[in-house]
Specification:
The radius of gyration is 22 Å and the shape is globular. Helices cover 88% and strands 0% of the residues. The protein is an all-alpha fold and 260 residues long.
Length: 260
């Protein structure tokens, strides 16, 4: 267990940022002397970006992620097969930070670039990269939902369809990611008015978290509680919609009687 992990476990976020800053500075200095360590500098900067985000420093978080990807873009020119994955992953990080800043159009464009890179990698080595493609598609669907794009549902469905056979084959490895993917799919369905589809997905999500709970109660109890709450809200939303629909029918009938 390294020093940064200990700091995070103890909740010392500011100290974790300072440690991450020192690590990125150290690799930056080494990278000027040993080119092969530039990848380590990019990884350190990306880690710094998440530590800054945890403190709410979104602008500085995005800046660190952009600096990381600028390094990776140069490395890709020299060794594309080695650093394309890191570049795609870095774009996902930048997209997340950009979305958190409320810059939804830009975040969506960056997420699309990430998906394109993962798709290219998956076409060459599907067994190695299809899981990462699925996660990138699900992230992209969230960005598309932010801008009310009709493509959000097709995008998340593609990601979930990739995850389902992975979960069927190896549930111990993929079940939690499959549950989160279905959760996002339900959110997208809810946003386009498919309440029954959203409820159906959430019922499955609750079942998946129930299956995972005995394996790690501390890890999954919060996930199950959140899913149960979401399911309750979706049932409530569906009942309210049904009552409003019935009320509109009653009103229409009364109005027809009045007019006649």
């Amino acid at each position: 267990m390294n020093c940064l992990t200990v700091l995070l476990i103890r909740g010392r976020r500011r100290a974790a940022v300072e440690y991450a800053e020192a690590a990125s500075a150290r690799y930056s200095w080494l990278g000027t002397r040993f080119k092969y360590l530039s990848g380590r500098e990019a990884a350190a900067l990306r880690n710094l970006s998440w530590r800054r985000r945890a403190l709410g420093d979104l602008v500085l978080a995005k800046d660190a992620a952009l600096r990381a990807n600028a390094i990776l873009e140069e490395l890709v020119k020299e060794v594309p097969d080695r650093f394309n994955f890191e570049l795609a992953d870095g774009l996902r990080v930048i997209s997340a930070h950009t979305s958190a800043l409320g810059m939804y159009e830009e975040a969506c464009e960056i997420a699309f670039k990430s998906v394109s890179l993962y798709r290219s990698l998956s076409e060459v080595e599907p067994r190695r990269f299809r899981f990462d493609l699925a996660l990138a598609l699900i992230d992209h669907s969230r960005r598309l939902t932010d801008i009310l794009s009709e493509r959000a549902l097709d995008t998340v469905k593609e990601g979930v369809e990739i995850l389902k056979p992975l979960n069927d084959h190896c549930p111990g490895r993929y079940k939690s990611d499959y549950a989160r993917g279905l959760q996002t799919q339900g959110d997208v369905k809810e946003s386009v008015g498919d309440r029954q589809g959203a409820i159906s997905d959430e019922v499955t999500v609750v079942g998946l978290w129930r299956e995972l709970l005995p394996t790690a109660p501390d890890r999954y109890s919060g996930e199950l509680a959140a899913a149960l709450r979401t399911l309750g809200l979706r049932y409530r939303s569906d009942r309210i919609a049904s009552k409003r629909f019935l009320a509109s029918l009653t009103l229409s009938s009364s109005m027809r009687n009045y007019l006649s």
